User: Which sequence fits this backbone?
């Protein structure tokens, strides 16, 4: 059983086809990158998995169970979700931002403290940052905080929507290293959306290329590079790697 299964999923918005019969599975405890140009449908697909958008047709299964969009809250507690810009609460300090979901789920204070400290250590956030507010942090520190918050409940599925897109090259490389270190210490099923093929090749075990709502190819880095399925994949990879 795959933790994430997309079965012939289509989505139309205002008569415009955003997704067209998307069909693929995500392997357990792997990193899968969903890559495509702006407007290709990748973020819509990710939001459908998180229950923010309901497909027009087809179905999405998580751990073998079809998503119930009428009762989505329990499912979201099993999913970590991080986006570009982190979405941190400006009125909360860093420890409060990281631990907010645990508090909403009535965790014991000692468990909250232990998990918060564990995550801050894993992501190389120094303890003295805990009482600071988002505006007092660098972009990289804010992104680390966002990752910590998404991982607070130790979700088995982790969704990232252009989570590293706003970072400068040096900071992005640092975050990439932290991200891979976290995956090694706490393996989970990760589906990340990116427009950067180099980032996808660096982080992901498997690549999914999407264009105009249609899946063009799935495969490893070597399969994508050495055996492009069609002219679009060939052109897309060549243009991205120039």
Assistant:
């Amino acid at each position: 059983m795959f933790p994430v299964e997309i079965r012939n999923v289509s989505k139309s918005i205002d008569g415009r086809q955003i997704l067209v019969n998307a069909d693929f599975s995500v392997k357990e405890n792997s990193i899968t990158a969903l890559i495509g140009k702006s407007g290709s449908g990748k973020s819509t697909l990710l939001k459908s998995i998180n229950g923010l958008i309901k497909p027009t047709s087809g179905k999405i299964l998580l751990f073998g169970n079809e998503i119930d969009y009428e009762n989505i809250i329990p499912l979201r507690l099993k999913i970590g979700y991080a986006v570009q810009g982190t979405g941190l609460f400006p009125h909360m300090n860093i420890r409060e931002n990281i631990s907010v979901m645990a508090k909403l789920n009535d965790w014991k204070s000692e468990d909250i403290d232990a998990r918060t400290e564990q995550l801050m250590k894993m992501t190389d956030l120094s303890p003295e940052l805990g009482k600071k507010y988002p505006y007092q942090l660098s972009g990289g520190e804010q992104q680390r905080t966002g990752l910590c918050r998404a991982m607070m409940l130790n979700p088995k599925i982790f969704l990232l929507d252009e989570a590293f897109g706003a970072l400068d090259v040096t900071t992005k490389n640092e975050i990439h290293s932290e991200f891979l270190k976290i995956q090694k210490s706490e393996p989970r099923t990760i589906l990340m959306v990116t427009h950067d093929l180099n980032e996808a090749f660096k982080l992901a075990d498997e690549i999914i290329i999407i264009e105009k709502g249609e899946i063009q190819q799935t495969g490893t880095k070597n399969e994508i590079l050495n055996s492009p399925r069609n002219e679009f994949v060939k052109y897309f990879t060549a243009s991205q790697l120039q």
Summary: The chain is about 35% helix and 25% strand. Residues 90-154 form one domain. The mean pLDDT is 91.
